[in-house]
Amino acid sequence: MNKAFTKEDDGPQADRLDDLPQSPHPNYVTPAGLAQLQGRLRAEHARLSDLPRDSLDAKLPRAMAERDIRFLEGRINRAIVVDPAEQDPEVVAFGACVTVADENDRHTDWHIVGEDEADPAAHRIAPFSPLGKALLGARVGDLVDWTKPGGTVELEVTAIRYFT
């Protein structure tokens, strides 16, 4: 057969998208964070099962769902579950809700959560974020330096709480 009439990409990898990169950081998760990941995985499996198998229109959505499933399975397999209830209540660690005061005495709560749960706009930060790194190991009354793009901000830790 003439080469012009064959597809070089035919084969098992033709419908597979490259994997999404996994974070280089340890995948610390709270029990709620693990439940979130498991829920997302179930939702992706459901989405995949709803897509037609033999439709060209579903080829890309199927490949995307399969890629997302591989990603979520990797996150779950690498998960290191940390129960906030088991942390030392006197020290900021993973799973803490930390109240800090800035130089204007404005108080803000920050929750140190897993990377998949992080949402800085909702004051949920990963432990390896600049603020997370500044807070880890601190105690009530400690001053920490939060290095931001606009400069360094000094914060005082005023409360540490852990929720289960």
How many helix segments? Answer: 3
| CATH level-four homologous superfamily name of the largest domain | Transcription elongation factor, GreA/GreB, C-terminal domain
Average pLDDT number:
91
Query: What is the second-level CATH architecture of the largest domain?
Result: Roll
Q: Note the gap between the termini.
A: 66 Å
Low-confidence stretches: 9-13
Shape annotation: elongated
**Count of strand segments:** 7
Describe the sheet with the most strands: 5 strands, mixed
Strands of the biggest beta sheet: in what spatial order? 5-4-3-7-6
CATH topology of the largest domain: Chitinase A, domain 3
In the CATH hierarchy, what is the class of the largest domain? Alpha Beta
User: What class do helices, strands and sheet pairing give?
Assistant: alpha/beta
Number of domains: 2
Overview of the structural elements:
Helix 1 packs antiparallel against helix 2. The chain is 27% helix and 23% strand. The chain folds into two domains: 26-81; 84-162, Chitinase A, domain 3 (Roll), CATH 3.10.50.30. The protein has helices spanning 31-50, 59-77, 130-135, and strands spanning 27-29, 79-81, 96-101, 107-112, 124-125, 143-148, 151-162. The strands form two sheets. It has a five-stranded mixed sheet with strand order 5-4-3-7-6. The protein has 164 residues and is of the alpha/beta class. The protein has three helices and seven strands, in the order E-H-H-E-E-E-E-H-E-E. The model is unreliable at 9-13 (pLDDT under 50).
